[in-house]
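Let us practice reading a record.
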Amino acid sequence: MIGPGQMANAQKSTAASDEAYLRIGEVAERIGVTERTLRFYEEKGLLKPPTRMEGGFRLYSEDDISRVERIKNLQNLLGFSLAEIKEMVEAQEVKMQLRAGYRPEADLLEKREAVLRAIEVTERQHALIRQKADALAKLQSLLEDRLVTFNGWLAHLDERLAEEKTARKPKARSGSH
């Protein structure tokens, strides 16, 4: 971990120059991804270019780590593509910026524009989730139909097996010796 005093030779982040930073290997190990994955996320715009030390070493903040964890969560839980994840994460960041920039003394039109922007990005997020939910609902319905079919086949096979078993039983003799 790189402490605040060791950042003298690094290009400091404007957001938090006094917070601790982790190198790429430390972040990869902590989150459970490869270093290549982190670089790929950066190349695809999913992760903002991290602060770098003089030698070019990437340094990641807690905010960067949280973003990667959100990306992994969206990928694992929802099956989102990287493009969809980027849109979801960026929309969340827009809303956080709007919240952080809220000023009670702002005029009503300015507040209204901020709320409209929050609605716009939330609607995009909702549309992505709705699309995934619809696809999952269709898949769930298909699998439920298949289970009904397979259980019907199983019941039919069990009936036939029972019939065969009954037919094979030796019939008891009646009569005496």
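A brief commentary: The chain has two domains: 14-68, 79-167.
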